[in-house]
Design brief:
A 7-stranded mixed β-sheet has the order 2-1-3-4-5-6-7, sandwiched between helices. It contains 19 helices and 16 strands. The protein has 3 domains: about 150 residues, Cobalamin-binding domain (Rossmann fold); about 90 residues, Transcription Regulator spoIIAA (2-Layer Sandwich); about 220 residues, no CATH class. It is α/β, with parallel strands linked by helices. α2 packs across α3 and α8 packs parallel to α9. The N and C termini lie far apart (about 70 Å).
Length: about 500
């Protein structure tokens, strides 16, 4: 018996842990008995006791560098207290910080990089008592010393492995969205061609993009529809349009509503029309900054002008839910450049009044180019595995030595700016004063005494809950009647 685990925040519990489902599928193909556990932090004690009773050959724990590292550390400690089963960490965090992760007393081994082939070799070595040094892409301990084996090449034929839905209750991950009732998360590819200086892909996927074949993806989706009644797909690819022709063929032939994430530079009139034709329900763009200097520094490969052009195109197709992410306090960013990014958000909202904007502070993921830059500025990385929880997009105060001008008050302003940015959608309501507050706050960069913020956030939640009576009433107040008429009103 091998147990694979993902501990996640409650808001992600309906998102299937695709990484360990791929690894679990590979292990089952090789003849191993596998159980996958996916739970929240408040269930750690319960599941640690359950794992200890099973005495598995090993416990594989997958963690991304964020609060998941803290949850996974808590679980690992508890397991080590209760049983002797080896604890093996894998996923992004162990691959980005291998020495520190393996040095923890609650970690026996780590898997570096993709897990399918490595997990099978490691399981065979553990079960049969073979020499761990012959297993590629792992770290292990011997006599108190840390050892790391030869790196394994990336998997070239992804079609060799698939998500094994039989080892979980898939019903947990079929969620209602867009008027559909059984929408699931899914990936068609790994990695990304682009070299954004803040992205974990540069190290984890070596800056490469690899995709399942079109035939494989369509067969998997056909099976999900036929077997489980799946009626919508949320694509979790880092770059769904890594190959445009392939992506469009999948989207056209799968005959399912969908949402995904890709680059604003891909968007033009022809592609936007294709999105509508293929039942696109939502897209998310990583815009990152409202400053060309910062976009060049982070190697984003796009300009503010590219961003504006892309949003202007999407404004013509308001039936597609449209969101964007931007970063504040990038390395070397000035106070004025932070204001420029917020002003760009407001400009984009004026172009596309249904845009949803998510702001976050820069997160220094280890092993990427900008990480070296922030370390030179005096940044001290967390010294314990659980302390990497600070790399969480959810706002909190943190040490930002790469922007030395930032004070505690500035960080409070960042926190409030992101909350007000999420409330810009209330500007679409015909409710005097209330519909202008988020824009007013951001435009003046004035977040003093935000007594109205909890009420506005409550209204926004109700507005987004399309099933509630209040939401339906609020939507009847929407003044959105087309971009041209909006511009006429503003002129």
């Amino acid at each position: 018996m091998i147990v694979l685990v993902s501990v996640c925040a409650p808001e992600f519990i309906t998102t299937a842990p695709l990484g360990i489902l791929y690894v679990g599928g590979a292990l089952r193909q090789a003849g191993h008995d596998v159980e996958v556990l996916h739970f929240t932090p408040d269930e750690i004690d319960r599941y640690a006791a359950e794992i200890a009773r099973k005495q598995p050959a090993f416990v594989g724990i997958s963690a991304f560098t964020c609060n998941q590292t803290k949850f996974s550390a808590q679980l690992s400690r508890k397991i080590k207290e209760l049983c002797d089963s080896p604890v093996v960490w894998g996923g992004v965090h162990a691959s980005l910080v291998p020495e520190q992760t393996l040095a923890e007393p609650f970690v026996d081994m780590i898997v570096i990089g993709e897990g399918e082939e490595t997990a099978v070799e490691l399981a065979d070595a553990i079960v049969n008592g073979r020499d761990l040094s012959q297993v590629k892409s792992i770290g292990y301990k011997r006599g108190g010393e840390l050892f790391f084996t030869e790196e394994r090449p990336l998997i070239e034929d992804l079609d060799k492995y698939r998500v094994d839905w039989d080892i979980v209750d898939i019903e947990r991950y079929l969620v209602p969205m867009w008027g559909r009732r059984r929408v699931i998360n899914f990936v068609t590819s790994r990695g990304c061609w682009f070299k954004c200086g803040f992205c974990y892909n540069l190290k984890f996927n070596k800056g490469r993009w690899r995709g399942h074949s079109t035939e494989f993806v369509l067969a998997e989706l056909k099976n999900l529809k036929a077997r489980y009644g799946v009626d919508g797909v949320r694509f979790y690819d880092d770059n769904l349009f890594g190959r445009k022709k392939r992506a469009l063929e999948i989207l056209e032939k799968m005959d399912l509503p969908w949402e995904g994430e890709f680059r604003v530079g891909y968007i033009n009139e022809d592609l936007a029309r294709k999105l509508v034709e293929t039942k696109c329900q939502g897209i998310c763009f990583g815009l990152e900054s409202g400053n060309n200097r910062i976009l060049k520094l982070i190697n984003k490969g796009q300009s503010v002008e590219d961003i504006v052009r892309g949003v202007e195109v999407m404004a013509k197709y308001p039936q597609i839910r449209f969101s964007a992410t931007l970063i504040l306090a990038n390395p070397s960013e000035t106070r004025q450049e932070v204001r420029n990014t917020i002003n760009t958000c407001l400009r984009l909202w004026q172009i596309h009044p249904r845009i949803q904007i998510s702001l976050g502070t820069f997160l220094p993921f280890p092993g990427v180019p900008l990480y070296d830059l922030v370390k030179k500025s005096g940044y001290v990385p967390p010294r314990r595995t659980e302390d990497w929880e600070v790399l969480n997009r959810t706002y909190r105060k943190r040490d930002l030595p790469w922007t030395p001008w930032v004070t505690d008050k500035d960080q409070e302003d960042f926190i409030r700016a992101t909350r007000y940015a999420l409330l810009l959608s209330l500007g679409n309501l015909r409710v005097p004063i209330i519909n202008k507050i988020p824009y007013w706050r951001l435009a003046r960069y004035n977040f003093a005494l935000p007594v109205e913020l909890p009420l506005l956030e409550w209204l926004e939640r109700k507005f987004e809950d399309r099933q509630s009576r209040l939401s339906r009433a609020m939507r009847r107040l929407l003044p959105y009647v087309g971009q041209k008429q909006r511009l006429v009103r503003q002129s």
